[in-house]
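ping. complex inputs:
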Amino acid sequence: MKPAPFTYHAAHTADEALTLLDRLGEDARVMAGGQSLGPMLNLRAARPTHVVDISRIPALRQWRQSADGTLHVGAAVSHAEIEDAPLAGRSGELLRRVASGIAYRSVRNRGTIGGSLAHADPAADWPPTLCALGAQVHVASSAGERTIAMRDFVQGCFETAISSDEIVTSVEVPSLPGGTRWSATKHTTHHGGFAAAIAICVMPPGQPAVLWLGAVGERPLDLSGAIGSLSLHPWGTEARAAAYAAIGSALEPVVEDGEHVRYRRHLHAVNAADAIEKAVAP
Amino acid sequence: MNGSDIPPVTMSLIVNGELRRFEAEPRTSLADLLRDEMMLTSVHLGCEHGVCGACTVLMDDIPVRACITLAAVADGRAITTTEGLAGAAIDCLREAFTAEHGLQCGFCTPGMIVAAADLLKRKPRPTDAEIRQEMSGNLCRCTGYVGIVKAIARAASKLPDTTETRRGE
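pong. complex structure:
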């Protein structure tokens, strides 16, 4: 199907984009890579009067890594660019791994990390990943800039902490200590499809393990507490069973509606236990 | 809302090596522009929401889904459709798809060739598992994929092992 008519605006700077959003108001949708908005336009699930294209704003297309390993990734950097980038350190490795698993290369060539966050699809890869990494999201409006902790960014299904006159400008990912173990697992019915379960596990040496789940409800789910009291070393059948049980219990209040509730809890618990296993005993 | 109130977008693209200027409604997809304005009908519309891959073209040498790319986004860029593909990799793919029965009706084939050519550029010696994974964004309703995987593997085996690899896993 074809989109409903809209006026197209290409912004060349972030300021220009923000001025446009102020002027156009609620009738405007921001488009970065268009890999989520594009299908919505074609299916007429979105019928904005105006589309503001931010995909070519140079300031949003940069990434850099500080001397301390902190990564600053512009909102309009594509998943493929992250996949291919020489990002150093454990957090860099995790970002590249997650990027490489998103959809298909032709989608990754256009889809952006900022767009993924702003769209906040519950099945998206970046939200739980960036939560597990303790990332900060930088956001701008014509009134100024602010920073939102990633764990507070996604507020519901396709709902975020930003308003219609704001755009994501960059994501800041702190470095992880050397020796950090990490894993990212997801369950799909076919390669590149939307995930039915996502788990990101990060284990910095000497610190509590971090476990975030995605595609499990409206928002990424922090299950670090659920596994915090478990003894994960030495890993084996008993440790895995304990982890599975703890995760399953934590999921009960989260996955309780709809069809196949027991199956979905099981799927998420297995996927999360797999993530822990890969991190602990690669 | 009346679509004719909306200012058209003008754009300049290089399409298969030819510089062209267009004026179109902003909602026009790159796929529709290429098909309707340039008769480049190798760009097939299967799903029109970015999941089947039949519309895959190269934009500035990287594969994109033309059905969910606005034509306006292609302003100032170089587009290559299957009609414009050339080179050793394409010759190998063309021979291989024929020899290994990598197509029946041919509807998915242009997108398959564009995607496969990009795959071989990034991974010159893919395993069958890698081929299947990397090509999973291109759907085929006829062949059952076995011939397609064999064709890509065959083409890979006939290409020189270039040292050009992009960074990545």
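Chain A touches chain B through 39 residues (CB under 8 Å).
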